[in-house]
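Archive entry: two folds, one per protein. Generate the first.
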Amino acid sequence: MPNIRPLCPELARKAREELHEIPERLDDDLAALRAWLAKCPHIKSRTDDQFLVTFLRGGKHSLERAKEKLDLYYSVRTALPELMKNRDPSNKKMATLMRLGSAVPLPTTETPDGPRILLIKPGAYNPDDYTIQEVFKFNCMMGDILLKEDDNLGIAGQVGILDLANTKMAHFLQFSPTFVKKITMLSQEASPLRLKGFHYINTPPGFETVYNMFKGFMNEKNRSRLHVHGSNMESLYKHIPRRLLPEEYGGEAGPLQELANQWAKKIESYQDYFKEDEQYGTTESKRPGKPKNAESLFGIEGSFRKLEVD
């Protein structure tokens, strides 16, 4: 039997019906994925069952899709050292950022087989104090823990709520088209996780510029899952029940600060994991065929141009 977490009946049914998961075949598929990795001179990957099964599920149990996704996962991460290197939760600046509540996974899903809901609140941090790379480095650390621990996320997908209350023009000016392309590729093509919906609330003037830029880099399926609610919370509640939200949003998930503190502690407990993770990635000089570097992946040299906003 593969060494993976047992699923609750609802998630097991969803994995079977939507992702074509056949438990009896898992051992063989995992062995095939490991055998393929052993023959890839350019990829150094984690090979534990729980990590690899996420890619099988992300590819709806097509071995070829799982291989493509795994290769791209490590290629893109290797091409983004500004997000993936020196991920140290004990760093004083990072430790402070982790407790600001700028990104928090909500503890409860709507149903046992529902997607994980992530609340993102850029207005919680001061853009004079943190670069967008530092903020996304933290987001990626949290995402890696969810990838490892959260079966709702791996099977049912994720729903994002982006609360833009208290954001300033300086927040939006941190996003260059280059950076937007990088993080869109990281979360869309190079992730085994599925986006099931993204909801924007408390949208300020100037928001459209960044929103349209993100939309431009998204595929049609993900574009269709974007919802802009402005300040109409009732409109949001039609998609996400109010009870699942933190107290500050009229919900029952507890105070946002408490959720942020709990997650900061969890990230700190992963310090050794992040250090160990530095050894994994791709060595493009060993890749058979054309290398996948920043230029070929993102169509750029990696230069950061600022957005011009009137």
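Generate the second and append.
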Amino acid sequence: MDYRKKKRLTYFTIGLIFLFSGIEYAVILPTIWKYLQTLEAAPYFLGLALSAFSLSGLLSGPLFGHLSDKTRTTKKIILFANCFEIIGNFMYFMGFSKWLLLASRLVAGVGTGAGSAIFGFLSRSTAPEDRASVFAAAMACRQAGLLIGPAFNLFLRLCDFKIGPFVVNKFTAPGLFMCLMWILLQLAVVFMYWDLPPQEKGGPAKGVASGAREDVEGETRRGRGPSLPGQPEEESQEEEEEEEETDESKPLMTSNELQGSYGAVVTPDPAGSPVTNGDLARPSESPEPEETAGPFSRFNLSREFMREEVIVLLAAQFITLFNQTALETMVTPLTQKYFDFGELENSVMYCVCGVEVIAGFLFVHWLSRRAKERVVLAVGLAICNISSVWCLIFLANPIGDFPYQLTEFIIGVFLQVLGLPFVAVAQVSLFSKVTSEKTQGFSQGVRRSVGGLATILGPLWAGGLTENMYIMLGVIMALLLLLTIMMGFSYDRLVHPAATEHAEDNSDEHE
């Protein structure tokens, strides 16, 4: 099978992983509260069950990401993580007690940590200019799962039979359904997923080059060089020898690797070799090759994450998800209080929002090829700020009669959902560019853990302030304003390091 076909099938499988994660959320969330009530659980158990899922994902994300960086493989990690999804959903299906249900969400949440390894894999196997569009497509798959997930509940709620000692009804059926779905996904990963080689800087993926190099070596062993159509064999053999000499003359570490992390100052030592302010190596010591030292041999946690641009993007991750989950928690009580919405009306509303989000991700997928990520991020933050001001004015205490209140609500929700794809895609893509490519899995795990913390705190914040909307929405607006100010001061640093280095080189030449 050729490289391109492997790449298409691998990306298709990644899309299925994100699609199933969205379906699981949309299938289980509508019925989990009533399920807990049948098990005589206290109201706080709902918050515990939802937080347990996010908590285990928060802890497993950096671990799976670190394993991905160390082994440079993701297939085994995904297969291992999916086992937790299968076991957790089967435990949810069993449902003998409220504690078993709580444990089921804790176990299933571990499987979400594979997303860190996947994002690290995508960062390594895609070119920087294509990364935002690839991330947008992956996120759109999850939103598609959120959109079509409620449709599965239409037939799952009709289930009423037994499998041995287990009862299959509208509460337990989602667990059995998702268990079977994750088992099918395991087969897809086994037969349709490959660990593609990393993307070379300024060139195709290493897999393409390595395949050609194997052909060259094979021809060389037979005593002749490979020739292209219409090219003399002697000429192609000379070119091959020149390429081998060029490869042998290449240093073990490139200039970017010698410079350390983005933004480090390079100073020459007495021996003439460049030394960074974070890695003051002894003159007598020579750097180890990457294959021997490993991706974390020169990794410094504080130097990697305690940088201006990284902090801004982590803040964007936290504030965006905090605000999103807080507003999601607030929406249902608000529609019940002012519009008397039931399950049907809320389902229709979430369906329409899902369509808008998918359309937004597709638009960002197109826009990211024509505009820089920091521009996309700025547009998204502008929309989110307008939305927060609108919600604070019109939704904290709706004015007018029913048609005016409904119109105010629709506009506020539309603006909030509209800005989400811009901020989500831009900050993920930029984060992959300003952090080290060698430790992308771990870095993406840290980013997702920050997001997991936000998804835990957001509902807790909104759930306790449903009767104090001015305070809740005011804090949301203040967080967005703070993020906007931070981005404004750090706007020049929110670029790929290579772009900054190129700009600095040009400025030095002009001087």
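Annotation attached to the second fold: Strands lie at 161-163, 166-168, 266-268, 274-276. DSSP finds 19 helices and four strands in the chain.
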